Structure formats: structure tokens, C-alpha cells
Recover the amino acids of this structure.
């Protein structure tokens, strides 16, 4: 091969190349090597790498390691130029497999490290902004009575935010009281239609014979008792905005077919009318029913189901996101305190008891309970004994575990009643500073309370009054 061609090729390489003989004498370096390392050929060629290393001209010599071990060596290090490079030194052998030299390939990776650092910083910023967006979204939905901490609700809100910018039909599913209407209002408020009407239609509350006229309106003289000028329906009132078809699973089959036509044609005919009204409406449907099963049972049209189920969103029940319960409790109390200018709080034990409840009525039931406690509490802090009996009873039953040494002859109801009594007495003793006041709160005499304390082996430390009564 032409030596000039070979030298020219190496000089054109963007990687730095250093070639030494079998004794470590430098015989060649290319221009890229000079640029990367900051070393010039005049101070390198004809010099031994060992001498250069000892004099501090270079800070590492991989080629000497190859000469010693006869193996390829790679490392990342910083040259005197300040540039970081990946260097790989490889043995050069003759046809007899004898070492005759070493070639060192050096690649500048300073830019790669810089890009890596930039990427790391970008990831940190992205995470920071993501957390900030999450925090702002939580504040935003909190203003709309959507309070959450759980990952399940976070994913639900993220999906709602994502679809809010589009006109696609949304089907919100979830048990009664989970907040389907609040979520639909959130989607509307985040959409380009937020300044336009938001109309809610409770499909379960409209009499069957009025469904058509309520949804689609009626023209003059459409039926006896109709207004002379006619009346627009809910769809017309929601034009350019959003209509929520709440409890859509309650729609009668004849109305379902007419609703399907309205969704497909984007126009509506009033009852008794001959002229269609063009519609530009975002449709959100909500239901606590399993519409798939309703379709199988013949109660809901399959084609309408697919029209509504473009973007499905399911709100998980409260029992599947218990970490949201303390947040909701505090939120509802704050609302009531602002409204009635009070400062009612709630004890941690009461919060824990409420958090362990199954909440079949979900958020709506929880809000009603908090309002009840707010009104009925005799003190400025709601205590566990203020909770409704049904919640305390369920908590005791859920926590009931029979030990091996318990008498199986004792009926479970008797055991639970005694456990409940013990629970109430312990709370009373912790809540009041003296036996007399605790007994007064429980509506029993101090001597009766002492007997109960002895029966249930309840020890109250540092209470001389109780000790005296026991003696």
C-alpha cells in the first residue's frame, strides 16, 4: 500500500492516533491527536513514552501497559489540554504474532460528556416542572372540589386534562358519589369551550313522557299545554358549549335512538318542528351502571354505547384510594369553617377511623358525614366518640380478631359489644382529666366507671382520683 495514502488517511481521521514501537518510542501522531491532547508532534515523535511520562509531559501512557501485558487497554482520562477523551491502545503484531508496536486511538468525548450533563440537567428541570404542574393542577382541581393524593386519582385527572382540549365524546363511569359531575365540569373548564354554556341533564330525574321535549325542545302548538312560542331543548341551550348527560344509562330505548341520530347528524329537530337546528356541542356522558352489561341485557343500544364511549374515564371508588380520605376531610372542614366562620378541627384518631370506613356512598357520603360532625360536635375539635355509631361499629367489627385463648362459648355479638364499650371508656378516660368528668360525660356514676375500668383492665397512669376510688 502507498505510504502517502496511508499517512494521509490517518491525518484525515477525526480520532487522534499515536503509534509507538515495541519499546515505547513514538513514531507517529496525527493532527487530531495534537488537537485533542494539546501535545505537539515535535515534542512527541522520537521520544520514549516512559521518559515523557516521567517528565510530566503526559499524564498517562496506555501504550506502555500494552507493551507490558500484550493486551488491548481502554480508559477515559483528561489530557493536559483539559479535554476528556476515550483512549484505546491496541498491540500491533507481525506475522509471527510478535509485538512490533502499539497504536493508540484517542476520541474526544468532552462534547458527549457535556451533552450528558445537559441531558441530566434537562431531566432534573423536566421533573421539577412536572412536579410544579402537578402541584398547580392539584390547586386548580381543589378549587373545583376535587381533592386527591392517590396515584389513581392523579392518573384520572391527568387523563381528563389531556382530553379537555378536544371535542371527543367522553364517557365517565363510576359509583354514585365519586364525583362524575365535578370531573365533567373540570373537563369543560379546561376546554376551549369554557366560556360557553355547561348544561347538565339528569336523565334519571326526567319523566319518560317529557324526555324528548326536554332534550330536544318543542315547536309552537306541538302538544296541548305547549308554550305558544315553543321552547328550546337542553341541546340547543348547550350549543357551542358542553352538555352533560348524567345517569345516561337511565335513558329509555326510544330516546336512545333519537339521541344517536343527534350525535351522528349534529342537528336536532324540536318536537313538532320541521326545521333542524345545527348543533356544535361537546357531549359528556356519565353513569354508575355497567353499560357493557346493559348492552348485553338489551337495555342499552350497542351503537349508542360505542358513540358515547370514545374516551372512557373511570373514577375509582373512595375505598380504593383511602389516602385521599384525610385530604378530603380537611378540605370539607375548611369549606364549612369559611362558610360559618368557625375553627372546627378533627382529631387524628377520628380521621383514622373515618379512613378505615368502606364509604359505599363515596365522596358524597363522606362530605355529608363531615357536615353532620361539624354541626353536632360539642367542642371545637371532632373526637372519635363524635362519629356515628355505624362507623365505629364497623371499625370494631373489621378490626375484630379472636385469639386462641378466648372462650368460644362467648357469642361474637357479646364480645363486640364489650369491645365497643371498652373502646368508648378508653376514649373517655383519655379525653377528660378526671374520673368524675369522664363518668359524667358517659352518663354513669364514678363507682360504675371504676368497676368498668377494673373489668376491662384499663390502666390510667398518674390519675390519683381513680386510684383512690379503686382503693
Amino acid at each position: 500500500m502507498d505510504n502517502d495514502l496511508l499517512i494521509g488517511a490517518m491525518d484525515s481521521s477525526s480520532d487522534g492516533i499515536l503509534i509507538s514501537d515495541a519499546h515505547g518510542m513514538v513514531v507517529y501522531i496525527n493532527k487530531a491527536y495534537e488537537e485533542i491532547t494539546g501535545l505537539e508532534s515535535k515534542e512527541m515523535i522520537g521520544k520514549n513514552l516512559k521518559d515523557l511520562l516521567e517528565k510530566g509531559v503526559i499524564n498517562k501512557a496506555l501504550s506502555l501497559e500494552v507493551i507490558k501485558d500484550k493486551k488491548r487497554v481502554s480508559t477515559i482520562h483528561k489530557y493536559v489540554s483539559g479535554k476528556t477523551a476515550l483512549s484505546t491502545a491496541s498491540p500491533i503484531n507481525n506475522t509471527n504474532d510478535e509485538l512490533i508496536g502499539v497504536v493508540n486511538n484517542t476520541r474526544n468525548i468532552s462534547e458527549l460528556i457535556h451533552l450528558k450533563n445537559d441531558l441530566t440537567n434537562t431531566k432534573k428541570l423536566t421533573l421539577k416542572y412536572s412536579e410544579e404542574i402537578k402541584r398547580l393542577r392539584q390547586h386548580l382541581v381543589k378549587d373545583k372540589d376535587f381533592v386527591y393524593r392517590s396515584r389513581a386519582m392523579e392518573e384520572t385527572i391527568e387523563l381528563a386534562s389531556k382530553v379537555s382540549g378536544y371535542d371527543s365524546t367522553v364517557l365517565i363511569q363510576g359509583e354514585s358519589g365519586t364525583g362524575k359531575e365535578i370531573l365533567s365540569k373540570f373537563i369543560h373548564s379546561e376546554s376551549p369551550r369554557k366560556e360557553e354554556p355547561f348544561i347538565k341533564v339528569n336523565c334519571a330525574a326526567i319523566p319518560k313522557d317529557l324526555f324528548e321535549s326536554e332534550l330536544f325542545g318543542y315547536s309552537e302548538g306541538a302538544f296541548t299545554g305547549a308554550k305558544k312560542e315553543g321552547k328550546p331543548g337542553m341541546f340547543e341551550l348547550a350549543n357551542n358549549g358542553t352538555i352533560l348527560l348524567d345517569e345516561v344509562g337511565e335513558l329509555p330505548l326510544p330516546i336512545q335512538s333519537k339521541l344517536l341520530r343527534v350525535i351522528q347528524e349534529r342537528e336536532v329537530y324540536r318536537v313538532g318542528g320541521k326545521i333542524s337546528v345545527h348543533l356544535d356541542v361537546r357531549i359528556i356522558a356519565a353513569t354508575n351502571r355497567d353499560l357493557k352489561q346493559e348492552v348485553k341485557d338489551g337495555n342499552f343500544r350497542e351503537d349508542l354505547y360505542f358513540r358515547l364511549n370514545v374516551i372512557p374515564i373511570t373514577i375509582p371508588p373512595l375505598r380504593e384510594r383511602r389516602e385521599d380520605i384525610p385530604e378530603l376531610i380537611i378540605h370539607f372542614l375548611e369549606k364549612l369553617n369559611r362558610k360559618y366562620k368557625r375553627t372546627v378541627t378533627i382529631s387524628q384518631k377520628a380521621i383514622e377511623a373515618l379512613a378505615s370506613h368502606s364509604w359505599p356512598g363515596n365522596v358524597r357520603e363522606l362530605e355529608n358525614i363531615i357536615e353532620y360532625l361539624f354541626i353536632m360536635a360539642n367542642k371545637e375539635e371532632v373526637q372519635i366518640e363524635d362519629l356515628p355509631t355505624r362507623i365505629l361499629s364497623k371499625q370494631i367489627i373489621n378490626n375484630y380478631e379472636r385469639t386462641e385463648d378466648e372462650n368460644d362459648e362467648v357469642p361474637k355479638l357479646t364480645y363486640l359489644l364489650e369491645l365497643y364499650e371498652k373502646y368508648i371508656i378508653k376514649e373517655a378516660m383519655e379525653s377528660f382529666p378526671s374520673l368524675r368528668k369522664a363518668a359524667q360525660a358517659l352518663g354513669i356514676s364514678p363507682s360504675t366507671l371504676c368497676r368498668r375500668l377494673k373489668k376491662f383492665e384499663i390502666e390510667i397512669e398518674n390519675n390519683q382520683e381513680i386510684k383512690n376510688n379503686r382503693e
Summary: The longest strand covers residues 84-93.
